[in-house]
Amino acid sequence: MKLLILDAGHCLSLALAREASRRTDAELVIEQGLTVTAAELQTIAPDAVIIPPLAHPLSMTPAAVKAHADAVDICLDACQAQEVALVWCVSDQLYEDGFDVPIDEHVVPAPRDECLRRLVDTGDRIRAEYHRHLIVRLGPLFALEGSRAWLSEIIDSLVMGQNVRAAEDVIFCPTSADAVAMALMGMLQQQACGADAWGAYHLAGTEPVSAFTFTSMVRTQLATHLEGRGEMITLGEVQALNHHHDAKLRRVLNCRRVLDVFGVHQKPWRLEVGRMLDAWCLTRDQQSGAETGETA
């Protein structure tokens, strides 16, 4: 299975590269840009093109959101021309106002924000014009490296003693980029074996929480890891933000379909954070050893 990954520096692209390095059934071609032409697809001949999500579109400029949607449209045209599968990952923020209950895959986002509607229009076009697609809606991604990695940004700020502000009144499911990469590989491998299960899927972590609770838990686990290493660092504090004063906004994805169709289970975000902090500490040890001339 040969995959073309766009936006090389994205945290999901890096996670896909790590996952592919552990497998013998996947070959990756990773491009820096956000678009691909039919001629390039003919030369590369991938089985699928994967477009990582535009993270936090609600906080981005209209020009940036439009540019992303335009890029996806260009990729769609190229994939159609060469009959290559298209995988587009999208942020759960397209469900702008949230829902009181977990959001099923068949619920198409209907945001009020004009920029978000531009992304929905692209999704509508994909569904209407090209059967061989996966639209994968994700919770907020976290990782240790890459653009929009979130977890690394939190850790860096806390270690430098900076306070981190996080919303307390928006509930979502933090999602490990590594878990998404593993799931996408498995889904596409099944598709290559004839599953023919195209369409929209939700993929997120377990245990809905607020950004404030997530960030606070990261701080607690980070402090535990540092203390266990004998490091006494005064970490920054986590400060709560509130945007929705009447009631908490719930943006929780129901991931039952991806389980029923592909057997993909949601990954508990607490376990993923713990695993990533273990890896962060190992890297910290290696860097410290390199600076002192010691070997691990």
UniProtKB/TrEMBL annotation:
InterPro entries: NAD(P)-bd_dom_sf (IPR036291), RmlD-like-bd (IPR029903). This is dTDP-4-dehydrorhamnose reductase. It comes from the Bacteria. Residues 63-279 form the RmlD-like substrate binding domain. Pfam families: RmlD_sub_bind.
